[in-house]
Amino acid sequence: MGVDALVRSGKFLFHKEYSHINSTERPNDRKWSQEAEITYYQWVPLILLFQAFLFKFPNVIWKMLNGGSGLNLDKICKLADETQWGSPDDRKSAIENMAFFLDRWLLTHRQYKHNFVARAKAKASRLVCFLCNKREGTFLTALYLCIKVCFLANVIGQFFLLNAFMATDYNMYGFEFISMMNSGESMRESPRFPRVTLCDFQIRQLQNIQRWTVQCVLPINLFNEKIFIFLWFWFFFIACLCGFNLLKWMFLIVFKRNNYMYVKKYLTITEQLVNASDKKMCRRFAEQYLRDDGCFVARMIGMNSTDMVITDLLDCMFRNFRLREEPKHQEFPEDEESKLLDKEKDTNPLAFRGNNVQ
C-alpha cells in the first residue's frame, strides 16, 4: 500500500505549526509534535451544543423557581393576552377574574409574624434587592434580578470558555478581525484555524515502525473560522444587551418610586386620580398593596399583552382596593345618622312605628 493510500485511510495527528511546511527542515522531535497538536477542531459541534445549553440554563432555573412565589406567571400572562380576542363581556369577566385572583395572591402572602426574625428579614429585603422574601413581596423581583445576572455572567464566561477550549486569546479575536478589515487587508489565514497542516502517521512493516509526515488540508476550518467570528460579535452584542437590561431592571426595582409612577400612569388614563387623596391612595396601592412583586407581575402582563389590558386590570384592582380600604359612606356618618333616627323616634313615634309595620 502506497503512502498516498495510507494518508487517506489512516488516523493522524494534526498540528497547528503549519509554518514548518515551507521550511527546509522540520524538527524531528516527538515532543514538538505533541505540543503542536491541534485537538479542538474535532470537538467543535459538542462545544457549540454545550454553549447553547449554557444560554438556556438560566431560563430553566427561572421556570423551576418562579412557581415558588405562589403564582403561575406564564399562565396569567397567556390569559391576559387571550382577553384581547374575546367579546366585551368575556373580556370584562376575564379581567375581573384575574383581578380577583391577583388580589387573593397578594393578600395571602402577607407577613403574619412580627417577631425579631421577621423584622430582620423585612429590613434585609428592603436593603438588599437580591434577597428573595415572599412575605415582603420581593420573591419574584429578587429572583428575576439573579437570573439577569446569570445571563450576563454566562455570556462573559463564554469568552473565557473558548479561551480554554482553543488555547488562544479569543477575547481579542473580533478586534483583530475589525482591525484587518479597516486596514483593507485581505482575509488571511487565521493561526487559530489553519487550513493546511502537517500530518504525522506511522507505518508498520515487518516490526519496523516508519514515521511519515505529509501535508494535509483541513477544509472544515474554513467554516469554523467564520462560525467563531460570528460568535464573537454575537456574544459581544448579547453582553451589551444583557448589561443594559440588568441596569434597567435594577433601576426599576431598587427605586420604589418607579412602582408608584408606573401604576399612576395607567390609573390616570382611567380618570381614577382626581384629587390629592386619590393620589395618596394610589401610592398606598402601589407601595403597600402591590409592592415589588405585584408591580413586577403587572409589568410582565403589560409586556406580554397590551397597554389596554394592563390598564383595565389595574383599574379593576384599584377599584377593589378602594372599596376595601375606604368603603363608600352614605350621606351622613353612622354616628350622626343614629342620632337623627333617635330624635325622629322621640318626636314622631307613631310615624316611625308605622314605617316599621310596613
UniProtKB/TrEMBL annotation:
This is Innexin. The chain crosses the membrane at residues 40-57, 142-166, 227-255. It holds the Pfam family Innexin. It is found in: Cell membrane. Keywords: Cell membrane, Ion channel, Ion transport, Membrane, Transmembrane, Transmembrane helix, Transport. Residues 329-347 have a biased composition (Basic and acidic residues). PANTHER family: INNEXIN, INNEXIN-5. It is a multi-pass membrane protein. Structural component of the gap junctions. Belongs to the pannexin family. InterPro entries: Innexin. The keyword DNA damage does not apply. Residues 329-358 are annotated as: Disordered.
